[in-house]
Amino acid sequence: MEQIVGVLAGGDSPERNVSLLSGKGVFGALRRLGHQARLIEIDSLDDLVSGLKGIDVAFNCLHGGSGEDGTVQLLLSVMGIPTIGSGPLACARAMDKAQAKSIFRSKGIPTPAGIPVGADSLDASLQEAISALMFPMILKPQSGGSTIAVHRAETAADLLPAAQSILAKFDSLLIEPFIAGRELTVGILCIDDDEVALPVIEIRFPGDLFDYEAKYTDGQAEFLAPAPLPPDVARQVQAVSLQAHCALECSGFSRVDLRLSEDGTPYVLEVNTLPGMTPLSDLPRAAATYGIEYDNLVEIMLATAMPRASEEPSTVSVDKPSKH
Q1: β-pairing verdict for 151-153 and 57-60
Q2: Which of 276, 282, 285, 299 is catalytic?
Q3: Same domain for 255 and 280?
Q4: Could you tell me the pTM of the whole model?
Q5: 175 within 8 A of 114, measured Cβ to Cβ
Q6: Mean pLDDT, to the nearest integer, of 297-313?
């Protein structure tokens, strides 16, 4: 009997709208591929358990918050429902940018310095940032995505209002020095049981930040896929990205965001365990550059849950992609 795939979308994080678009895209692809699929739109975790009734496999498109920080992954595990991608611990590590940064540094993976800030340590942490880091600085939620609530501080006077703005919506934030250079992203995908770094994408955008508007407004940013990099530099960026993915013990797929500094160092900013699957998202764009179109990408991602779905042989077939 064919399994029913539940596509989880919505949620109560600031990334809800992106999640709904991802869920709609994935649901359409699963239907075109001949799978029995159900789009499960939830408003909060309270809706999740009832929405999962009759579901055999979960295709999680809940970006940010409890959908991506390991909570939903753990709940699905307890309920015996296999889901795509990384497990609860890897998701928790990746979502906590300060913890991920600590792991990167312990593994020798280049990453910007960072100072975590909570409401109870605001003044002291800002003074530490002024003493230890160079301006301009980037302030962002410690657990968040889609470049939501990210600020650039040019001077010390900018730090407090930027931090207060973030703490009004999030429990904590992270301060990093701005890395002058190029914005890059690398998708990681399990192909034929091998974790593969997809072609590097360079993102060029107006202004100082690749913010939410630039990320999700068609025409705001230019995506160069593959990035115009010398082959040895591209290979180095891919290698560092794969190291970051593995350092957090991610599996199946992820998206690694980086800055390539002016001296050629690829600095890992973060790893996203549930990257966007909208028409403007980077993982589908990178996969297409590799030779994997959207529907086949969805099939490959679904296959990351299949070994845990049952002890029966998987019915999922994945075409061998051609490298470009």
Answers
A1: unpaired
A2: 276
A3: yes
A4: 0.88
A5: yes
A6: 71
